[in-house]
Amino acid sequence: MTDFASTKPSLITGMGAALVDLFADVTDAELDALNSPKASMSLIEPEQSKAMKKSVTVHTRQPGGSAANSVAGIASLGLATGFIGKVSDDALGEVFCGAFETLNVAFSSRPQTSLPTGHCLVLVTPDAERTMHTVLGASVTTAPEDLDEAILAQTGLFFAEGYIWDSHSARQAFVIAAERVRAQGGKVGFSLADGFCVERHHADFMRLLDSHIDILLANETEIKALFGSQEPSVLAPLFAHHNLLGAVTYGGEGTVVFEGENATKIAAQKVDDIVDLTGAGDQFAAGFLAGLHCGHSPELAGKMGIIAASHVIRQFGPRPQTDVGAELKAQGLTL
Fold first, then answer.
1. What is each CA distance from 139 to 16, 194, 299, in whole angstroms?
2. Is 300 within the bounds of a domain?
């Protein structure tokens, strides 16, 4: 088994867009009228967001952002966490920071003043699928000077979302943070985030695989955009070639964990009362990374990720509102 456990330093730190999610229910016809490809994530300007919000009814506002959601999930399991990101000195920034304060997440962002806190308009269709339209706002201004040396010094597992590659300064910050964490014996994880994001930055992502990443997370669409296939038999030698531990989620078909030349399939939990698929991948990452960090095998960590994801899709919103840790403990998966 590859030893991904970290004892000292002990922090799990995520890096990504600091966003506030704005949820609205729409029909498939309404989604088509907005020219929104279902299940995609697109970057839009503030004026576009304002126009779209006039066509829908926003009923819920919650702190979000892919890596931030994973950090919140890990923190809810009782593990020490940190976050690197950027908000503005505005009302949405207070919403974002307040949630992390409640969870005791180490977050020392210097607030922006020229750009608003980023937000994501999440359109949820009757099949519980989500389509996201993101105004990056202040989140794109994360830069090397925003790195907190005290947090990095305590970080044993650092992970980031692919969306950071849409910001040149955030790319620089990621590389510095990843090199710092690896130099002190820690590991670095990376989530591909979105198929379109992979297409935008394919060459850069391929270079990262051999230079700054130990753990790769993706869904079937994202991994196909990166490697040209979603078939486990094709992917296994590619993960091995790049010396990566990985997990690829296949929706209701479960997850495949890749370690060396091995591809291990883990069945999904049967969930009859799905409410909202938002955050399923983020919470899978939370359970998976928490499991690895605490010394579980990749297969058991994958099971932990599936349990965490199965909890969040029974509720509205991307962060856990139920006691995931209690179920993990009941199944003998201790943290």
1. 8, 17, 34
2. yes
User: What mean pLDDT comes out for the span 295-309?
Assistant: 93
Whole-number Å distance between alpha carbons of 36 and 69? 23
Cα 178 to Cα 68: distance, rounded to the nearest angstrom: 17
Q: Lowest-pLDDT range, 3-12, 111-120, 287-296?
A: 3-12
Secondary structure class of 188 (helix, strand, coil): strand
Phi-psi sector, 243: left (phi>0), alpha (psi -120 to 50), beta:
left
What is the tens place of the pLDDT at every residue in 40-74?
888 899 889 889 999 999 998 889 889 999 999 99
Q: Which domain holds residue 128?
A: 11-330
- Rounded CA gap, 82 and 15, in Å? 9
Answer yes or no: pTM beyond 0.85.
yes
Query: Tokens in use for 97?
Result: 């920071």
pLDDT tens for each residue of 157-185: 999 999 999 899 999 999 999 999 999 99
Of 94, 87, 71, 98, the C-alpha closest to 17 is: 87
At 18, list the tokens: 């600091």
Closest CA to 72 of 312, 273, 261: 312
The vertex-67 CA angle with 61 and 73, nearest 5°, equals: 75
Phi, psi for residue 42 in degrees, rounded to 5: -120, 150
User: Is residue 2 situated within a structural domain?
Assistant: no
Question: How far apart are alpha carbons 127 and 48 in whole angstroms?
Answer: 25
Domain count for the chain = 1
Domain membership flag for residue 5: no
Residue 270 falls inside a structural domain:
yes
Alpha-helical segments (H) within the chain = 28-33, 46-53, 66-76, 91-102, 149-153, 168-183, 195-200, 202-209, 220-227, 232-241, 280-293, 298-312, 324-330
Spell 1-26 as b/e; 16+ CB within 10 A means b: eeebebeebebbbbbbbbbbbbbbbb
CATH of the domain at 281: 3.40.1190.20
